[in-house]
Design brief:
single chain; 201 residues; Glutaredoxin; Glutathione S-transferase Yfyf (Class Pi), Chain A, domain 2; four-stranded mixed β-sheet; globular
Length: 201
């Protein structure tokens, strides 16, 4: 049995949990909660960077980060639905997944700017830089929305990013990019694990 070390609030951990369900691994892994802020948390021994998620294999090996975990699991259990097997199609899905991951990374950095800096220390230049990434990324995703098809990895990653923005409210993407609203509703209907892994309020 696999052990997934993560926080239920992590969009990166959520992405892996959704992928594990898509790959038929529901019930074949256990969750181990991690706190990246606690210097005594075991995550720092599992991953010296102290980052989540990390996967512990049946052999006791640690695999991290989320992108490597997904590649590892897909190689073992996938059938080409998550990440296509053909070279060009694989590169296309992974590129779109990287776009969505970059949106999520920028969302996280906006959150951290408010969490770890006093208001007078926050950098408007830095925040504008991250918001630019988010908006350009969402616009690019909309242009290629027909390629973000569940259950491929690009779709999973974009859905987790949009849900993270719903939760942390870095941007009101529903008002700014309404084309993404029915897309996310359709993804949630097609992938039940998405709703099941929703972070706590």
């Amino acid at each position: 049995m696999y052990t997934l070390v993560t926080s239920v609030s992590s969009p990166y951990g959520r992405k892996v949990r959704v992928v594990m369900d898509i790959l038929g691994l529901a019930g074949k892994f256990q969750l181990q909660d991690a706190s990246t802020q606690d210097p005594n948390d075991p995550i720092r021994k599992i991953n010296p960077l102290g980052k989540i998620p990390a996967l512990i294999t049946e052999a006791g090996d640690a695999v991290f980060d989320s992108r490597v975990i997904i590649d590892f699991l897909d190689a073992r259990h996938g059938d080409g639905g998550l990440i296509p097997r053909g070279t060009e199609a694989r590169a296309r899905v992974l590129t779109l997944a990287a776009l969505a991951e970059g949106i999520n990374d920028a969302l996280l950095l906006v959150t951290y700017e408010g969490r770890y800096r006093a208001p007078e220390q926050a950098s408007d230049v830095w925040l504008d830089h991250q918001m630019g990434k988010i908006r350009r990324g969402l616009e690019a995703a909309i242009e290629r929305l027909d390629e973000f098809q569940a259950p491929n990895l690009a779709a999973v990653t974009l859905a987790c990013a949009l849900s993270y923005a719903d939760w942390r409210k870095q941007i009101d993407w529903r008002a700014e990019y309404p084309a993404l609203v029915p897309w996310l509703d359709g993804f949630a209907a097609a992938v039940p694990a998405f709703e099941a892994t929703k972070p706590p309020v």
